[in-house]
Each structure stands twice: as structure tokens, then as C-alpha cells.
């Protein structure tokens, strides 16, 4: 295994641990993979691997193929290779638009951003109590409001020297107004109350545009594969 693949696996493990904690997903692990029970998606297990070799791919694919409700998410650059192996294993691709992204936290301000509008307010709350059952050292939620109207929301989890950002969302009626940037800067400032060095986020296509502007870079695309029985279900319901 290359040094790059080992580092990617380390980043994936940190992201996964904080992500499942922020969303309260049951988690499991097997040889070369991590798995989360997606309670928000009809209870299907979602498996994660980073730059797998053919043997590792075959091992996790054998788990995924056992149920049409399961999915395999591969972080890595060899999308063509993953799709070829997927077809042999009875899987098919449904997406590769998301990216796992990374940020040097030292490049971010450690103070809450200036809102520039007296009608805007920030609400930041710590998630869970002192004795919460979580792998994270701390978890925070944040919201930007205008009066009682919520404009944008998001979360960050602190795991070791990582700050993992999640569920950053601006309401559809209030996009393209800079609220997403204010939100992530707010969460980054709160994260830097802890000795974090690295930020991680699983970013949608829309989010990637903003994160690149803020200094994030891509670690790799996320290739999502599901059993072919699931593909047939999706085609039938389309």
C-alpha cells in the first residue's frame, strides 16, 4: 500500500468517526472497510473504503451485494477501475459527484466572522453534555438567522486534531448571499478552540465551489456503488 493510500485511509477514518457521531449513526468495521447504518435512508448500511486494491474491493463488495439497501462509497481517483470491478461483483454506479475535501485549519480565522448586517445573528450550541457517548471531543451546531428566520445551518465535530464539518446547508430562498461562507467560518472559529490542524468535509457539487474559494482541496471523488437489484428498482420507480 502506498503512503498516499495510507494517508487517505487515515483521513477517511477520522471523517467517518466524527460524521457518524454528529449524525448518531450506528457504526461497524470490517477488514479494510467502515460501515454506517443510515437510519435516514430506510436503514440500509453504507460502506466506506479508501483507494482499495482488488482484493479489498472484492471483500467489501461481497458484503454490499447481500442486500439491495446497501451501498459502497469509494474515495479515490481510479473511478474507471472501480466501476469495472463493480460490474464483475454485481454492483453499478449511481454517483461520483461528491468529494472528500481537506483544509489546513491554520489558514482560517479563529474569531467569529463579522456579519455586516444588524438584522443577522449567530446561534452556536454545543451538542450533547459532558458525559455524552461520543467519540468526538466536542460537537457544535450553528445557525445564521434573520430575526426568527433560519438562513443557514451546519455542524462540526472535533476528533483528535481533526475538525469534521457536516450538514452545511443554506435555505434555498437565501443562497448566493454569502451565508454559507459565514457559516463555515463560524464553525471553523469554534473548532479552533481545540488543538485541531485539519478540516474534513464530504462536499456536494454546489458546496465544492465555495470550499475551493476558502482554501479547501480535494482528497478524491466519492464513487457510490449499489447492487444491480437496487438499480433496477430505481429505474422502475423513475
From TrEMBL:
Keyword line: Transferase
GO molecular-function terms, A-Z: acyltransferase activity, transferring groups other than amino-acyl groups
Entries under InterPro entries matching the protein: Acyl_CoA_acyltransferase (IPR016181), GNAT_dom (IPR000182)
Domain N-acetyltransferase: residue ranges: 91-237
PROSITE patterns membership: GNAT
Name of the protein described by the UniProt record: GNAT family N-acetyltransferase
Source organism of this protein record: Arthrobacter glacialis
